[in-house]
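This entry is listed as follows:

___
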Amino acid sequence: MLALVLSILFVSCLSNLLVHKFSYDAQFNQLREKLKVIAQTAALAIDTDALSQVPLKQEGTQTSAFKTVAEKLSQIKKANPPIKFIYTLTKTEKPGIWQFVVDADPPFPEDIEMGITSYPGDKYDASHFPEMLKAFDGPAADTKLEADDWGATLSGYAPVRDKNGKAIAVLGVDFSADEVYQAKRGLYKRAILVFVLGVIVSTILAMLVSQRITNPISELVKATRNIAEGNLNYQVKIKGADEIGQLAVSFNQMGKSLFELRNKLLNYFFRVAQSLVRILEAKDQYTRGHSERVAEYSEKIARRMGFAADKIELLKEAAILHDIGKIGIKESILNKSGKLTEEEWETIRKHPIVGENIVRPISILEEMMTIIRGHHERYDGEGYPDKISGENIHIFASIVSVADAYDAMTSPRAYRAALSKQKAIAELKNNTGSQFRPKIIETFIEILEEES
């Protein structure tokens, strides 16, 4: 964006400078031509006889000839308001040194104090004004602002010719530099306006162009983060036939392929893990089918509580694998008919952690591992292995806990007979708020009573 803005600004400034110079030169040349015309017209209006009779000394200002010429110059000045000074000069014997004949404006007191006067015969150094030196041959005008004792002006000149066509003096017309500067300021204002508009337009254009690049890339970055977080269903929404659009299509295909591959791997892992659970349960006639029944109860509870279908499917898979950690427990402890020792109980309490460790290397679903680890946590915080309490326990872990307890109570064990359905429901009610989450018990009991 910055490169685009700078390039547009460079072109804009370059063209603006060229246009500015062309416009300024054009206006400046027009002003020079105007000065030439005014000077030439004024020169034609001068009474050359009166001009030639003006004595070239200060007292000459009192003569009728001086007053005649001065009056005419004043009339010309009034007719052309931009004129600051109008005067006539003639040559001296010394090259480049001229002398005033008639100046329409008497010198100001402060000029007189500084020794700057323009009385007839007062000398003037014209050597610094090449265009003035040419004026005896024809109309001329300064090519740039010139400064003398009277200030910075732009001047036009024309020869004053007698009846025989001989140039006897030069008439000078000075325009104040303010006129030139005003024209220059007008051009500067237009140049600044064009520059500002160029900055605004180029910035907007650059933002639009850069957004066409950065927005799709930002969307790709967002998609990459979603993929990295395991959301393989995320699709990049970028339209277009350019390289970024093609990259988005390839990215979506990659995400879809990864999603399908992950599902295949998870299904494969789930089948293997399910087989391990069945092998474990097959060794004990009392627990055969336990995991499937817990999964069935859990599904009914979750469906009644309004969970989404994909979440329910996850819950079922976790419920089937909830006791996979018992693979690491000796059969003598699992099938013991008598009372377990404290050491044996400690071994039993580790099976949720063992189950999580079995699942962790393959499963990328943190939620499934949380369910397996937390299905023996209690609502009052007295469960294991982490002693989590209340709503801090994952809702699915609490559901599996209820389903697991109910199936355990209604199934025969080596150390006791199966409880009836009503007695199992009574036990669930008795342990509501201590072992079990109340909302789940309420939902499960509704299901059991409806089935009855």
Notes: Strands lie at 83-91, 97-103, 123-125, 140-141, 146-148, 151-161, 167-176. The first helix runs from residue 2 to 45.
